[in-house]
Design goal:
The protein has eight helices and 14 strands. The chain has one domain: Ribonuclease Z/Hydroxyacylglutathione hydrolase-like (Metallo-beta-lactamase, Chain A, 4-Layer Sandwich). It has 246 residues and is α/β, with parallel strands linked by helices. Helix 5 links the parallel strand 10 and strand 11. The strands form two sheets. Strands 6-5-4-3-2-1-14 form a seven-stranded mixed β-sheet. A seven-stranded mixed β-sheet has the order 7-8-9-10-11-12-13.
Length: 246
């Protein structure tokens, strides 16, 4: 079975290069699965003509706004479009409380409105796996501070494996998550400059033999990496890019 991964947003928290925040869409094996949903994601999904009311399965790597901040907008969009399908969110511990707080800060009273659909949370924990609709997700904690465990995700979907670093400095957890994956999507914030809790692409490339993934795409680039893409021979994500995974 051939599946695809669409980059709805490939940017960092600050919109570097005019890119939308982190959001990807796995398609082709039954229901779609969304991976991260940054604050700008609803714009990207609608720009890509995705029926947001049909999205039932969301996986969140960590609780920073550029990775989960689109959830209040998706919930409210479902309310106003008379959505009825349950929305299930797999995320680190504390996600439900953080989303509720964000909804109340943004739209006071919105978290207690009665809706025609349920929002269900499944907690993701280091070393454990969960079923999320058509996907099975395994998690490892990574080196990134977000007020809750930050996780890398290994997603089995349609007979293929897609690994995702989330945001992190180099950690051996990435070897466990991405080993022999069909596609590894990894943060590459800078080319060589070390930034605490973030990945530089030079360090990442030095570990590729150890990881042994079939294909890697770098995402979540900051200004330094965007300006130096020609300095390293790797694939880079772009908003709207669709990758076929055969």
């Amino acid at each position: 079975m051939s599946i695809s991964l669409q980059f709805i947003g490939s940017g960092d928290a600050f919109g570097s290069g005019g890119r939308l925040q982190a959001c990807m869409l796995l398609r082709g094996a039954g229901d779609d699965v969304v991976i991260d949903l940054g604050a700008s994601s609803l714009v990207g999904l609608k720009r890509a003509h995705i029926d947001t009311a049909s999205l039932k399965w969301i996986a969140i790597s960590h609780l920073h706004g550029d990775h989960f901040g689109g959830l209040p907008f998706l919930v409210l969009d479902g309310q106003f479009s008379r959505r009825e399908e349950t929305l299930t969110i797999a995320a680190p511990a504390g996600a439900e409380q953080r989303v509720t707080a964000l909804m109340e800060a943004s739209f006071p009273g919105s978290s207690t409105v009665q809706r025609k659909f349920d929002v269900v949370y499944k907690e993701l924990h280091h070393g454990e796996w969960v079923e999320l609709g058509p996907a099975r997700i395994t998690c490892r904690e990574v080196d990134h501070v977000s007020g809750a465990p930050s996780l890398a995700l290994r997603i089995e979907y349609g007979g293929r494996v897609v690994a995702y670093s989330g945001d992190t400095a180099w950690t051996d957890s990435l070897v466990e998550i991405a080993r022999h994956a069909d596609l590894f999507v990894c943060e590459g914030y800078t080319l060589t400059r070390p930034i605490r809790y973030h990945m530089d692409v030079t360090t990442l490339v030095s570990h590729l033999d150890e990881i042994g993934c079939r294909r890697m795409i770098v995402t979540h680039m900051g200004p330094d990496m965007l300006a130096n893409r020609g300095a390293v021979d790797v694939e880079f994500a772009e908003d709207g890019l669709v990758v076929e995974i055969a």
